[in-house]
Amino acid sequence: MTVEHLPSLLRLLADPITPHTSLELWERITAFGWDECVSCLMQELETGEPDVKRLVMGVLWQELEHLGSERVQPFVTLILPLLGDSDRLVRMAAVQAVRDLRLEESLPQLHRIVCEDERPLAAEALVALMELDDDLLDDLIKTVREKLDCQN
Fold first, then answer.
1. Which helix (H) or strand (E) holds 8?
2. Tens of pLDDT along 51-88?
3. CATH number of the domain that residue 34 is part of
4. Domain residue limits at 38
């Protein structure tokens, strides 16, 4: 297997994605050489099918978990627009990515998701907002405490 086979491998492994798929692919990419695979991963994140985009974000999460955020940083400009992707699962993966990467520049898009998107995705975006915006977290805690006190 060579780096040239990576786009085909991404498409094959993306349908269906299992819990171990992104780890297995991350290990293969690490063996190929991360730097050699970056351009392919970026291309797929930008133009790939929704399942492939989610798989690439899973690979990025594996990289983040195992080796930190340094080699994931070039992908930030591609992840942020995915918060508005037409596919709900891609948006969900993007919310999780900005949360894990602690991307404060995602706050306006997360606000939009909380206000406009379906409830499960809005809930994920709210959790990300609580982790990224201390002022909002303080306001939410105050509001919830007030509401709970009123019910006693």
1. helix 6-13
2. 999 999 999 999 999 999 999 999 999 999 999 999 99
3. 1.25.40
4. 3-151
